[in-house]
Specification:
This protein has helices at 22-32, 42-49; strands spanning 6-8, 14-20, 35-36, 57-63, 79-81, 107-112, 118-122, 127-132, 138-140. By secondary structure, the chain is an alpha+beta fold. It has a single domain, classed as Mannose-Binding Protein A, subunit A (Mannose-Binding Protein A, Chain A, Roll). Residues 22-132 form the C-type lectin domain. It comes from Oryzias latipes (Japanese rice fish). It holds the Pfam family Lectin_C.
């Protein structure tokens, strides 16, 4: 399988062509790299936007129903990063309009959609995905 060019940037993601569900993508990223991608700021996302075509890709954010409070419901602060198990340390979010909405009680994983906005999605859907590669970041297409 030929490799396309790789672009080096101060942050790293590897968008992979093979579609996996969220758990398979997480397992693959943890075995081959560090984890699914994490975004701490708009700058992170803007670096990715330059060379990445958004057609639904998993990244490392998932909803943790155990963090819900009855009075709070499904709010963005119940979402955790795969790499740390914690909410955002910077408070950065980039949700699409009306997301997260926990549609039909099944959307507990996050994917990048059009324009790089975050969308909650059903975790068993198969999408490409973005892996975090330690602290020396690069991303490319395989």
């Amino acid at each position: 399988m030929p490799h396309a060019p790789q672009w080096y940037v101060p942050f790293s993601w590897r968008p992979l062509r093979w579609p996996y569900d969220w758990r398979e993508a997480q397992r693959y990223c943890r075995e081959k790299y560090t984890d699914l991608a994490t975004f701490d700021s708009l700058d992170d996302l803007n670096r990715l936007k330059a060379d990445f075509s958004y057609s639904w890709a998993w990244f490392g954010l998932h909803d943790d129903p155990a963090a819900w409070k009855t009075s709070m419901g499904n709010k963005s602060n119940s979402w955790r990063w795969s790499a740390t198990g914690q909410t955002s340390t910077t408070g950065y979010q980039s949700w699409a309009r009306d997301s997260p909405d926990f549609y039909q009680g099944k959307e507990t994983c996050a994917a990048l959609g059009g324009g790089g906005l975050w969308n909650d999605a059903i975790c068993i859907n198969s999408y490409r995905f973005l892996c975090l590669n330690g602290k020396t970041f690069f991303y490319g297409y395989f």
